[in-house]
Amino acid sequence: QELEKLGLRDDVDLHVYEVPVEYQTVQRLIPALWKKHSPQLVVHVGVSGMATTVTLEKCGHNVGYKGLDNCRFCPGSQCCVEGGPECIDSVIDMDTVCKRVSALGLDVTVTISKDAGRYLCDFTYYTSLYQSRGRSAFVHVPPLGKPYTAEQLGRALQAIIEEMLDVLEHSEDKINCQHEH
């Protein structure tokens, strides 16, 4: 919500959605949003009670979902996509994004993770990565006030997303350049 107030650079069309903590809704909603907007990038943000930093998740996992959601439902298969790869990495180089955002001197600590937790955050991330062939990102944030304010988190997300878009645009320039030879 804070990011929606702050916005992103002028050439970015920002759409903000709140995704319920429900496996079946995620399986329906994420593909529908990709279809509706055909975005360059989708960045999911989830609150983690265990997080003490703003955490960039490198990958999503397909199996191991045993926790009940807000509807007291859990997929019988305990997985996102039957037959999908065990793990999908984001095409975004999270190490580069982390270094760049940390160098900006914001009053927020940014870290990297390879395990989004095998609950709805990880489930949503994997679903989105699978749908987008890796053109997704997931950022875990601590609960408000523990230790950051909404404004601090909003500014951090703004910086993170702008760096992600920059990294994505530069990696595509390289890919396009290689195809021309």
From TrEMBL:
InterPro entries named in the record: Peptidase_C15 (IPR000816), Peptidase_C15-like (IPR016125), Peptidase_C15-like_sf (IPR036440), PGPEP1_Cys_AS (IPR033694), PGPEP1_Glu_AS (IPR033693)
Record field: transmembrane: none
GO CC terms of this entry: cytosol
ATP-binding as UniProt keyword: no
Superkingdom per UniProt: Eukaryota
Active site positions: 57, 121
SUPFAM superfamilies: Pyrrolidone carboxyl peptidase (pyroglutamate aminopeptidase)
Top EC category: hydrolase
Reactions mediated catalytically: Release of an N-terminal pyroglutamyl group from a polypeptide, the second amino acid generally not being Pro
A molecular-function term among this protein's GO annotations: pyroglutamyl-peptidase activity
Family label: Belongs to the peptidase C15 family.
Complex formation: Monomer.
Function of the molecule: Removes 5-oxoproline from various penultimate amino acid residues except L-proline.
Protein name: Pyroglutamyl-peptidase I
Source organism: Centropus bengalensis (lesser coucal)
Gene: Pgpep1
